[in-house]
Amino acid sequence: MDIICPLAVPKGRRLCCEVCEAPAERVCTACTVTYYCGVVHQRADWDSIHEKICQLLIPLRTTMPFYNSEEERQHGLQQLRQRQKHLIEFCYTVAQKYLFEGKHEAAVPAALHSLRFRMNLHGLSSVELVPAYLLLAEASLGLGQIVQAEEYLSQAQWTVLKSTECSHAIQSLLHRNLGLLHIAKENYEEARYHLANDIYFASCAFGTEDIRTSGGYFHLANIFYGLKKLDVADTLYTKVSEIWSKYLNNRYQVLSEARIQQIDLLGKRFETDTGLDEAQEAEAIQILTSVWNIRESTSDTAPQKTIFVLNTLVMLYYLMMNSSKASFPRKAPCLMEVEVPLVEFSCVLPSCTGFCPLSKAALQKSSDVRDVSHLLSPACIMETALSSSRGICPLLA
């Protein structure tokens, strides 16, 4: 990174830090179009998002070339808008992923980039700015900055109120973040009101059984769990688990029916994918792991519910293994060498069909569901699925 020479800056032009908008003193030497107030914010932005989009910023932040005709100029503007839309979605997805992984500080620069690109493309009062405001609000809540979160949410609310074209999906996100704000302020009545609205608008947009609606059920369940209303919380956690289990099993069935098999010297290839983006995969891991931890603490009363969540987690990790977003990329390629056999597990979950490495003999060896939970800890869920793909169930070893 080079230090900016004040004499090299054109008169009347103000260079601002990409993170805090303070007067800039340094410039990124790789793209030469991004500025920072110091090394700390440059490093934060680089680690969060800038490393991934550094070269993509150059055509967006430099003067457009001279075109010989109006047709060429319109084509150039269309390409510019497409690049902006791509960066909006990319930065938004990266910021979402950080939030679901609990990396709230890293999510801020990515969310700020998404917000600025939206402003440049849609204007300062467009409803398209709302998702970025909500990301920044959620990141602020995670960092304990409640006042800052309230400011972002106020901007989002005001933008929605002014708009006549706000979708149900955006209103769902707005109410979800307002619910999270009131949870942080321990105002549970207001939190329940907003989360109920979140579920309503998400159901209108996607349906009551959609994975995008499950987040509202999950946060509402957390409130009832904290209030010791365990029956209501249990019902909602079960709903969340069923939604994800149904989605993942349906996804597996689709892949099984339409899978692409290529014969080579190593045999058949079996391609797997969750059908989710990185942020949705991170959300699924966060939700299902949280439900699993809660189920484990109450496994004495309903061990089958713990096994249900475990099965769903195994299915999720299994479908993630062979994609470019796999949790253990070094081990994933071994799935390409063999066709993964389906293992019957009606003994575990009669209502579901699909892949699970748990067999009846393995469960008979475990006198308590906590034994199974120990065998399928987060560190070895992937190992279990990998071993099963070779026709070996580690629980039977």
Which properties best describe this structure?
zinc-finger, mainly alpha, disordered C terminus, zinc, Zinc_finger_MYND_domain, Zinc finger MYND domain-containing protein 12 isoform X1, 397 residues, single chain, 15 helices, 3-stranded antiparallel β-sheet
Describe this structure in words.
- The protein has helices at residues 39-53, 58-61, 70-100, 104-122, 130-142, 146-162, 168-184, 188-206, 211-226, 230-258, 278-297, 303-321, 360-365, 369-375, 381-389, and strands at residues 2-3, 26-27, 35-36.
- A hairpin with a 7-residue loop joins strand 2 (26-27) and strand 3 (35-36).
- The chain contains 15 helices and 3 strands.
- It is mainly α.
- Helix 3 runs parallel beside helix 11.
- Helices cover 61% and strands 2% of the residues.
Q: How many helical elements?
A: 15
Q: Give the low-confidence spans.
A: 261-271, 322-397
**Which structural class fits the helix and strand makeup?**
mainly alpha
The amount of helix comes to 55-70%
Biggest β-sheet, characterized?
3 strands, antiparallel
Determine the mean pLDDT: 79
- The helix/strand order is EEEHHHHHHHHHHHHHHH
Oligomer: single chain
Strand order of the largest sheet: 1-2-3
Shape: globular
| Rg, Cα atoms, Å | 24 Å
Count of DSSP strands = 3
Pfam families: zf-MYND
InterPro entries: TPR-like_helical_dom_sf, Zinc_finger_MYND_domain, Znf_MYND
Protein name: Zinc finger MYND domain-containing protein 12 isoform X1
Keywords: Metal-binding, Zinc, Zinc-finger
